[in-house]
TrEMBL record:
Entry GO terms, CC: endoplasmic reticulum membrane
Protein name: Alpha-1,3-glucosyltransferase
Subcellular location: Endoplasmic reticulum membrane
Membrane topology annotation: Multi-pass membrane protein
Organism the protein comes from: Gossypium mustelinum (Cotton)
């Protein structure tokens, strides 16, 4: 009787929450006190970003081309001093061989806005021609502020939006402290902070727009979600890593509605309209549009650069892809491999769309692109990490292990940027936050599963037992620690100058592949446990 009374009480509370959400969208925010927690964590996350910004950046004082910092500054210089039609066109005033724009138009517009900001306080930092390699103290300070402001204006609000939506879906599960821990896992993601505020990029904009699109899709605002995702795609083309998941989830929901054709048409019009607005300056002529598109697909760079922990680079130890096959053939191979590996996740969402399935699909398709697509960089691991941080409460053990190897895979890059101190400090901070006493109650007992463990299929149990085997985890953890020390204290043999990078790549790749199987199996298990009521339910 007591248990039955408690169940009725919980049901009343849930009904009250649902009623409150319908009447006042901010009611839940005040009741659960998320806002104070979010503000405190955001301020701390902002201070961490400022501290990392005090360290060196990509290409600091290394002429003639410097690094990503100079690329971002140069784009501000170009967009501020030239008309839009010349931004992507090689000319005497825009040498595309010197950090030519190779991102979609929304990045160019962002560069223009930031260029106006720099010109207001330090005109020399964006002067045409004369500002190449400009590295004054004020210029660097202003550049760092542009990234911080992008975080505050786009990434942080998007995280708050997602947490509110996600928490409302999970009401009655876990404690309020779980919310604070979840926010910290997203905002204090060490990989994103190191790349944006150390190495120097603006991933926070495209990833922030993607998070907002995910939150909108989960809260049944599909048209808004399509616009936000198109904006993310028009900021960085790597946002296409999430395209199959968005397509499968939104199409799956449309097919379950009363008028599927109308719903699909509305989404299609929103996508076309968003692209038309963003690309408008380049739709005036075919040549202008083709000039932009040619810059977005740099196939001439080869199927991979440096030592990235994906299939093509790892297997090149045995198969010399670049020597055996033409660029055209490699393009076809990579396209086929990417489509084949991300197809199961997309199909699962078309057949049985669900909120959790959508998040797992985002994780799985982004891993497919990272492992098999053309021209992948070390920094691209940020894309699979995004949905993983959003699933932190479901995959608490996975986020610890994968974040470790994601950071490890970028260690050679960050070492070149002289960011080792920031790397170690952020890793230590991540561990402290992860093992905070206020973290999710289920974390210490392993990864939370979406279903009762007694109902989980043997295939998932088998993959889980391998993925989280104590001996394997201990061995790989020890190997990564030793490799960190070796990389910092020893020189590789002259015959094999990239030996250490190759070993790091092999270890990280093995883990990424193992987790890809694990997450795919978990996503497909979702459809096995849908009730008959869920399958017959029509979305209004």
């Amino acid at each position: 009787m007591k248990k039955k009374g408690e169940m009725k009480k919980v049901k009343k509370v849930k009904d009250k929450v649902n009623d409150g959400q319908d009447d006042d969208p901010w009611w839940w925010l005040v009741q659960e006190r998320i806002r104070p927690s979010f503000l405190c964590i955001s301020l701390f996350a902002l201070l961490v970003r400022v501290a990392v910004g005090l360290h060196p950046y990509s290409g600091a004082r290394t002429p003639p081309k410097f690094g990503d910092y100079e690329a971002q500054r140069h784009w501000m210089e170009i967009t501020l001093n030239l008309p839009p039609k010349d931004w992507y066109r090689n000319s005497s005033v825009n040498d595309l061989s010197y950090w030519g724009l190779d991102y979609p138009p929304l990045t160019a517009y962002q560069s223009y806005v930031h260029g106006v900001f720099l010109k207001t306080f330090d005109p020399d930092s964006v002067a045409l021609f004369t500002s190449r390699g400009y590295e004054s103290y004020l210029g660097k300070l202003l550049m760092r502020w542009t990234v911080l402001s992008s975080d505050v204006l786009i990434f942080f609000p998007a995280v708050l939006y997602f947490v509110l939506v996600y928490r409302s879906m999970r009401f009655g599960m876990g404690q309020n402290s779980d919310v604070a821990w979840h926010i910290a896992m997203i905002l204090l993601n060490p990989c994103l902070i190191l790349i944006d505020h150390g190495h120097f990029q603006y991933n926070c904009i495209s990833l922030g727009l993607t998070i907002a699109a995910i939150a909108a899709a989960l809260s049944q605002k599909d048209l808004v979600a399509s616009v936000l995702y198109c904006l993310a795609l028009n900021h960085k083309q790597m946002s296409a890593y999430f395209a199959p998941a968005f397509f499968g989830y939104l199409l799956g929901k449309c097919l379950r509605k009363k008028n599927p054709l109308l719903e699909v048409t509305k989404l299609g019009l929103m996508v076309i309209g968003t692209f038309a607005v963003v690309w408008w300056p380049y739709l005036q002529s075919k040549d202008a549009a083709l000039a932009v598109l040619s810059r977005l697909a740099p196939f001439e760079r080869g199927i991979y650069e440096d030592y990235v922990a994906n299939f093509w680079c790892t297997s090149s130890v045995l198969v010399k892809w670049k020597k055996l096959y033409s660029t055209q053939s490699l393009r076809i191979f990579s396209l086929a491999a990417t489509l084949i590996t991300c197809l199961p996740s997309m199909v699962q969402q078309i057949l049985a769309p669900s909120s959790k399935g959508f998040l797992y699909a985002l994780l799985n398709t982004s891993f497919s692109f990272y492992l098999f697509s053309f021209q992948v960089h070390e920094k691209s691991i940020l894309l699979p990490l995004l949905p993983l941080t959003l699933l932190a409460l479901e995959e608490s053990r996975s986020i610890l292990w994968l974040t470790h190897f994601a950071m490890f895979s970028m260690f050679p890059l960050l070492h070149r940027d002289k960011l080792v101190l920031a790397y170690m400090a952020l890793y230590a901070l991540f561990i402290l936050v992860y093992f905070a006493p206020c973290g999710p109650s289920g974390r210490c007992h392993g990864t939370k599963t979406l279903d009762n463990t007694q109902k989980t299929k043997r295939s998932v149990d088998f993959i889980t037992s391998i993925t989280f085997h104590p001996l394997l985890m201990g061995f790989l953890g020890l190997c990564s620690l030793i490799l960190h020390v070796i990389y910092l204290t020893m020189h590789p043999p002259n015959k094999y100058p990239f030996l250490f990078e190759a070993v790091i790549m092999l270890i990280c790749f093995s883990q990424f592949v193992l987790f890809t199987f694990y997450f795919n199996s978990k996503q497909w298990m979702l459809s096995k446990h849908l009730t008959s009521k869920d399958k017959q339910k029509k979305l209004i």
